[in-house]
Design goal:
Helix content: 25-40%
Strand content: 35-45%
Largest sheet: 5 strands, mixed
Distance between the termini: 23 Å
Number of strands: 5
Order of helices and strands: EEHEHEHE
Length: 112
């Protein structure tokens, strides 16, 4: 499956709308798009996962590297639209304690 990453910037906030599956084949595309803003001082990034239904460890690695770069320049990262399965992946890895996560709209408890 292909991965599509659309970026919109408004008031120094970069919103990444991610569509598709994030795996070993598609992760380089995501990494390339994220790296374009990762080093910007005080970058604010919102990653919209509403249309992502699968992510493997390669995708998590891309996310962690991006998060570290953004935090190193006093930026912030927020993830929105996680489904229950992806939220569980962030919980298992402990990333839910590190990054701000907002579940899919209308489902604050993750009972998709």
């Amino acid at each position: 499956m292909n991965l599509q990453v659309d970026v919109q910037e408004k008031d120094c906030v970069h919103v990444f709308k991610i569509i598709g599956e994030i795996d070993a084949f598609t992760a380089p595309t995501l990494k390339e798009r994220l790296e374009k803003v990762a080093d910007q001082p005080e970058c604010q990034a919102v990653l919209d996962f509403k249309e992502v239904n699968y992510m493997d460890s390669t995708g998590l690695g891309v996310f962690v590297a991006f998060y570290k770069k953004v935090k190193a320049v006093n930026g912030s990262v927020k993830i929105v639209g996680l489904n229950k399965r992806l939220k569980r992946l962030f919980e298992i890895t402990g990333l839910d304690d590190v990054v701000e996560i907002e579940m899919e709209s209308g489902d604050p408890n993750g009972t998709v």
